C-alpha cells in the first residue's frame, strides 16, 4: 500500500513538473486565426452544389468559390506582412504539397481569383495572372497596416497549434 501511494505521488509530481516547466504545451491561443485559400468558380453548373458565394470586405464584391479551400491551414507554413510596389501586402507561404496545388490551380484557372480567408471571412482576393510556381502567394487585404500586423501575429501563433492537430 505504501509503495502504491509512493508511485502515485511520484507520477503526480512528474506531471506537475511538466506543467510548470512548460514541456506540456496546451492548445490555447488567445486569438486563433485559421487561414485558407479559396478559388473562384467561373463556370455555370446549374443545380451543382459545389460552390458558395462570399462577399469581400468592401461589402459589394461577391465571388462564387469552391465549397472547400484549395489550400487549407495545414498547408500554410508561414505568413508575413511585406511591402511591395503598390503598398503593404500579405505573403502566404505554402508547404510543398500546398505549393504544388497552388501551381496546378494557377495554371488551370488563369483569370480566376484566389481569395484569402481568415476564420471563414474573406479578407482579400487576387486575380491569377500567371502560374505561381514558388509556393508563395502575395495578396492585398482590406485592412489597415496595424490590423494586418496583428492578424499576421495571430496566424503565426495559430499555425503551430493547427499543424499539431
Protein architecture, described:
The protein is α+β, with helices and mostly antiparallel strands and 165 residues long. It has a single domain, classed as Gyrase A, domain 2 (2-Layer Sandwich), CATH 3.30.1360. Helices cover 32% and strands 30% of the residues. It has three helices and eight strands; from the N terminus they run αβββββαβββα. The chain has helices spanning 2-21, 96-108, 145-164; strands spanning 35-39, 51-55, 62-66, 76-84, 87-94, 113-118, 121-127, 136-139. Strand 2 and strand 3 form a beta hairpin. It starts with a helix and ends with a helix.
> How many distinct beta strands?
8
User: What percentage of residues falls in helices of 4 or more residues?
Assistant: 25-40%
Radius of gyration: 21 Å
Output the strand order for the largest sheet: 1-6-7
* Strand and helix order: HEEEEEHEEEH
Distance between the termini: 39 Å
**CATH C-level name:** Alpha Beta
How much of the sequence lies in strands comes to 25-35%
Please tell me the CATH architecture by its name. Answer: 2-Layer Sandwich
CATH topology: Gyrase A, domain 2
| Structural class computed from helices and strand pairing | alpha+beta
Shape: globular
Whole-number count of domains: 1
| Average of pLDDT | 84
Biggest sheet, open or closed, and with what strands and sense? 3 strands, antiparallel
Low-confidence stretches: 18-25
